[in-house]
Design a protein that fits this description.
- By secondary structure, this protein is mostly helical.
- It has a domain of about 70 residues.
- Helix content is about 50%, strand content about 0%.
- A two-stranded antiparallel ribbon has the order 1-2. A two-stranded antiparallel sheet has the order 3-4.
- A hairpin with a 4-residue loop joins strand 3 and strand 4.
- The chain is globular, with a radius of gyration of 21 Å.
- The relative contact order is 0.15.
- This is Transglycosylase SLT domain-containing protein.
- InterPro entries: Lysozyme-like_dom_sf (IPR023346).
Amino acid sequence: MGEARIPPRLAVGILVCLAWILAAFAPPPTERYEPSVRGTSEVPPTGLFRQAPSELPSSRASAPPSKEGVQPVYVLYSTALTCSEIWGIHQRPPFVPPILEPAVSVAELNTNQPYYYLVAMLIRNRIVDAQDCPGGGLQTPFVANTCGVERARPVLAEWQNRYDPEIVQAAQNTGVPPRLLKQLFAVESQFWPGVYGNGYEIGLGQLNQSGADTLLLYNPPFFQRVCNSILHPNRCEMGYANLTSEERLMLRGYLVQQVNATCSDCPGGIDMARAKESVSTFAEVLRANCAQISQIIYNVYRRSPGQISNYVDLWKLTLVNYHTGPGCTAKAVQYVNQQGLFLSWESLKAGLTTPECRKGSDYVERIFQ
């Protein structure tokens, strides 16, 4: 008899699972940064069968017919779908805030902001030399002082713009507004693609288990690409929601680690190639959040978002969902419906009633500033 061999996909899955388990029980990292809030409440779909919204052209859908009494689930069916198409808005408004402009060049994305956390990380990782500054350029271990920022000026400007080509490309591929994606990175990580908080907020956009869950559930094409590299294709055909809890944990762990650019052997402690590759993943996360709020709104109104709200306000609701999770978003939408109000940003803000949910409103203001 020949020597027994473990199938390659199974071997990769075992390694990923073991790595995630070890990471879960590892001591917390020394790096500290105020993490974004992420909700933990789940919003169950109204049905098990994925079906494209009736407003979309049938050529974009490839789903089995729904069972009687099972409502469609708004999810992505093609990488060609933009958030506006998911919402049933087939023509974007002619005038939108600059942050939502769909086409922006790399040069137009250029910024030059004094990111004090980013400078602190550049100093701590010996990318910037500020030894002649008070405190070595640091006000606290993770906040630079004014002298440190001045010493870092040339590197600071280059660092915050080094992902711009990837952001523009991701915007072209997904329809996510490029300035919105860049500002999300600025607010979440100040462009330092490492590990934050308690070690479970990772990368340029601080992806965690909840965010990975949204991406894998509400972006089936992305799920298939990830799943087929880890599990047997027969398992992937079942869809993310029908996998075992262990399989879902394995996929989420793999995905979160894929956006972690921390690298002890790399210059400056960052694997820049991995950081740049992660930009497209975060664009896909935003698209998945667009799909999730479509589901939330459909659950309450039985109508597509574009029929009862507008393009700008739906993006703001998507950002709340990204930051606080679907629990806060669902409660806000339910509140607006119960009050008989128009589904606008102002009415949705009134529905963010808990302290944790109200942080979603502050988050939107920081993104849109």
